[in-house]
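Recall the central idea of this unit: under ordinary conditions, the amino acid sequence of a chain determines the structure it adopts. In this exercise we apply that idea directly, starting from the sequence alone.
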Amino acid sequence: EPTYYASIELIMGIVLFTIQIYADFSGYTNIARGTAKMFGINIMENFEQPYFSQSLTEFWRRWHISLSTYLKDYLYTPLAISTRQWGMISITFSLFVTFVLAGLWHGAGWTFIIFGALHGGALVYEALSRKFRKKLNRNFPPYLYNMFCMLLAFVYVMFTFVFFRADTVNDSFLIM
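Accordingly, the structure predicted from this sequence is:
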């Protein structure tokens, strides 16, 4: 029950879960890659320092690459192609639906659907604001802008992990 914990304990729980989920997924993948390598089979890298991403788009290119590739190849691309006559709406619709379904794939519960919707929504925002953000980037020193974007992406990912980890939607909101 989240109400039993102080704010600092909940924040530490979120940070530590963020580390744990990466360590678990990345560790399992590295074990599989190492075992396969012993048999002369090369398996692709599956995590490329995702927590250093400067956007959610970049995060999903670096996080669980095999799953992201599968989602892109078998969900997003066919959906975007079948709705291409919609123009930009096709891209945003396809992104959002893909990530809501990815959330549902992780578990049949509202917390996972919300997790997917939050990622889908962020990716839609990034797709729609790409030109604006590029223009904004020119107004700040690159290192400062890049660090800010990295911090913002990381905090957003941690925020979404609250839904991924919580038992109920109500618990998610209590944690926040």
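The radius of gyration is 18 Å.
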